[in-house]
Sequence to fold (323 residues):
Amino acid sequence: MKKISVIVPCYNEADTIDLFYKAIVRQAKLLQQYEFEFIFVDDGSNDATLAKLRALGSSDERVRYISFSRNFGKESAMLAGFRASAGEYILTMDADLQDPPDMIPEMLSAVVNEGFDCAAARRVTREGESAVRSFFARRFYGIMDRISDVHLAQGERDFRIMTRRYLDDVLRLCEHNRFSKGIFAWVGYNTKWFEYKNVERSAGTSSWSFKNLTKYALQGIISFSSFPAVFPAYAGAVTGAFSIVMAVILLILKFGTSVSVNPLLWIVCLLVFLASLVFDFQGITGAYITQALAEDRNRPQYLIKETDEDKVELHSAQKDVLE
Ligand code: UDP
Ligand code: MG
Fold:
């Protein structure tokens, strides 16, 4: 019997946990051919979340919980759950029922029967969300698409079902500042997308403040884009070219015509040139920092999906997975 690990990050979810548990147990009943484990990660809640989890743990042996010493954030909660999971298939979803549980059988089928390594959900509407938040969220996905190394789907959630090999590769990226949506995309393989209309929280309120969301977005950009760091080099190239063109025009005017040139323009030209040098060096420093960060993250140089083992020299970590 194959096992499905369900990972649920919970921060102050005392009001939603019972509803969520009922809904997920209903799905587990529909999928009787699988064994289930439910791993709830209490991310330092200061309400009755932990007490609820203890109670569930003692009444249902499939329920396990991990409780953090303080609030470390959803990324850390998901990571702890992933590391603790033992299933062949790993499902992660929020505790507030914003990720519709009745999508699970279809998503699971994509992974089990259709050869996908990941089935992921994205919401195509944002009803119920504040207009300001929706606006910035949409811009964020657009910007990430243009400047980063990974493609994020508009409105994508952390609601996904993965195969063990996919998750093992996700865990091979051991960077401290994790931006999972980027990591999921970076790892590759084939993902099938499932679309749905936004669902509002079953109870409680979103724990993401605008400040937290901004930090999250910046984390995504810093983790997967070198563009902001090397951008000054582009600005340097443009201002440098501008100063050279300006100098040529001034020289032509001075020596080729009788027009008198205001000497201040030479100073402006020199200042623009010096500014371009500053931009260039800033961009070069940015490039070094980007490279140092990449070395420090030490992401795998490649991940192998399939191989004829005799002919290919495998990365030792990959061997464990394929064996
Ligand atoms: N969450 C968490 N740690 C946090 C914030 C949120 O584990 O610091 C959990 C939360 O309990 C929920 C999920 O992450 O299960 C999504 O959080 P929320 O519903 O507040 O975010 P939103 O749906 O508004 O993006
Ligand atoms: Mg939510």
Remarks:
- The pocket of uridine-5'-diphosphate (ligand 1) is lined by residues 9-11, 13, 43, 71, 73-74, 77, 94-96, 98, 206-208 (CB under 6 Å).
- Residues 123 and 280 are 41 Å apart (CA to CA).
